[in-house]
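Render this sequence as a predicted structure.
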Amino acid sequence: MDRSPTPIGALSKTAAAEYIGVSERYLDHLIAAGELQKVKLGRKTVIRIVDLDKLLEQNLQQQPAANNCERDTAERGHNS
């Protein structure tokens, strides 16, 4: 097991997944899709906390638009 300290401002993949509330598998999907950047430090892979916060913020900003779309669709359904 690599016991080198995690750099300040970054988390291991396991901790990063926990931080944003997803599985490690989904975190890998986000990385592969280019939505999240990983940093390799020798054999250790870390994710910067600032990048995790940015991802959360981007998704938070997208939610109100999605909720408005759902509400508009529901209202149109009731008016038909």
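Summary. The chain has one domain: 10-79. The two ends are 62 Å apart (CA to CA).
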